[in-house]
Amino acid sequence: MFDKLVAGMKGVLRKMGLLRTLKDIKEHKKIAVSDSDYTNIDLWKSEYMNTAQRLNLSYKHNGNRIRRHKRTLKLPKITARYMSKLVFNEKATFEIDDKGADEFLKKTLDDNGFYKNFKRYLEYGMALGGFVMKVYHDGNKNVKISYATADAFYPLSNDSEHIDECVIPNSFQKGDKFYTLLEWNEWEDDKYVVTNELYESYNANEIGNKVPLSLLYKDLKPRVEFDGLSRPFFVYLKPNIANNFNLTSPLGISVYANATDTIDIIDTMYDSFEREFVLGKKRIMVPSSMIKTTMKNGEMIQYFDTEDEAFHVFNSINDDAKIIADVSVEIRAEEFISSINAMLKIFAVEVGLSAGTFTFDENGIKTATEVISEKSETFQTKNEHSLLVDEALKELFISIIEVGKLIGAYEGNLIKKSNISIDFDDSIADDDDTRINRWTNAKNQGMVPLIIALQRAHKITEKEAELWVKMIRDDEQAGRGITDVEASQLFGGIEE
User: Fold this and answer.
1) What is the CA radius of gyration of the chain?
2) Pair 305, 291: CB distance under 8 Å
3) Which of 55, 122, 140, 274 has the most crowded CB, counting CB atoms within 10 A?
4) CA quadruple 280, 286, 292, 297: dihedral positive or negative?
5) Which is nearest to 270 in space by CA: 193, 357, 262?
6) List of long-range contacts for 319-327, beta carbons under 8 Å, 24+ apart
């Protein structure tokens, strides 16, 4: 069943008035979102794709209509990617304290290319304000994970923390007809119910009339009930930012939702910077009296190459004047770069990053690559987003185990969040000197054992740390290593 439902989750139905239609055909359920929520998502998506309406410029120059696309620094894309990389990368590890569940989870994640797909959709989620992950099976006892962006997800109800019911649309055309499959995920008391409805229309802008599922789906049941589930089959993940566009909406907002004005200002500056080179190219004014002509094949030919845009002919007041004037304008590169960098500092603060995260020079825009202080805005923002990512991944893993149990692919124990540990990579805030000093001080103050201090300070395994301790003791006994004073300074001496 599940593989047929998730074949294509698309958000185009909003343009057919889906929200109004949903309210009509499911009056007993309250639709938890409004059209304005998806209008905002459309805007953030267009910014991310560099197709926003504001970038289409139209103006007159010397009586001619000029239409062009504004040059941009593509900040929305850069910001969403930077945020997603801060929060999650391939160094993240997952563990379940049940061996069978742990093995089944890791095999399922590996089979689904989880690291690659999750990183990609996390970036989309940072840009559009969220994304959804859905667990299903392929009919062959394989648990699968599908993803969809925020514009293809419609919440039905929610509590203060979670969206627990939704409708997922799938629209497509077959012949001269347009079809819409709606998958309703709802709770009825303790039962999790999936309801499927198929609609047919001759108009792409209308959802049309309800038709039998068997028209297109021979094996798809209109209603399926599940007992014993602790949570729905889907997980909605959004950035950890309060939605100040709609205080009652369960949907999230883009990480740059409150910085679009600044993005426009920076793009205007960058566009002007680029135009400075186009309009500031070499120009030499030559009086018409100096332009010699000759006849060639019955045509009057000028000596100067009229295709060379550096030369411009003007009619001088005094035809006897022999003046060639270089009227080239000096390009204000430093002024533009300085102004853009000033606005980039403001933008960084608006999206929750440290000022100086983004810099611009003659080579383009750059993001900070140095180690990030644990007290910085960037590190605090990373941790805020990581809280929701941690929660969402644990919910996803629980659903994977439960679906595996339902289809007989997994026969072990069910799990809870307390059984799962997730270790995100924090190397962005971890340099060698800081890390070694931290664990040295902890050892000196008697807060951690020597073995642990060596492991953490030098990123080595427990066996390697044990070997190091033995080697240090051997050096001391042989009188050919560190002195007692040096040993005392290093982790407070060696314990016997």
Assistant:
1) 32
2) no
3) 122
4) positive
5) 262
6) 319/287, 319/288, 319/289, 320/289, 321/287, 321/289, 322/287, 322/289, 322/290, 323/287, 324/284, 324/285, 324/286, 324/287, 324/290, 325/284, 325/285, 326/282, 326/283, 326/284, 326/285, 327/283, 327/284, 327/285
Q: How many contiguous H segments (helices) and E segments (strands) does the chain have? A: 13, 20
Q: Higher-confidence residue: 131 or 286?
A: 131
pTM value?
0.77
Burial of 53 (0-12, 13-18, 19+ CB in 10 A): exposed
Report H helices in 296-431: 333-350, 377-406
**Tokens linked to 85:** 């990389």
Tally of CA atoms within 13 A in the half-sphere of 344 that contains its CB:
25
Residues 416-454: tens digit of each pLDDT: 999 999 988 777 666 667 778 878 888 888 888 888 888
Q: Residue 296: what are its φ and ψ, rounded to 5°?
A: -145, 115
H runs (alpha helix) in 351-376 = none
Q: Residues 47, 260: contact at Cβ < 8 Å?
A: yes
In the numeric block, which tokens belong to residue 443? 């050892």
Q: What's the CA angle centered on 401, arms 399 and 402, to 5 degrees? A: 60
Residue from 58, 78, 60, 77 nearest 68 by CA: 58
| Under 8 Å between Cβ of 263 and 75 | yes
Task: Answer for the pair 456, 127: CB distance below 8 angstroms, yes or no.
Answer: no
Q: With contact defined as beta carbons under 8 Å apart, do 358 and 347 qualify?
A: yes
Q: Which two tokens stand for residue 115?
A: 């690291």
Q: Are 412 and 98 in contact (CB under 8 A)?
A: yes
Q: Name every residue whose Cβ is closer than 8 Å to that of residue 59 and which is 6 or more positions away in sequence.
A: 65, 66
Distance CA 183, CA 181 (A): 7
Structure tokens at 273: 């910077």
Site of tokens 């989870």: 105
Q: Provide the pLDDT confidence category of residue 387 given band limits of 50, 70 and 90.
A: very high
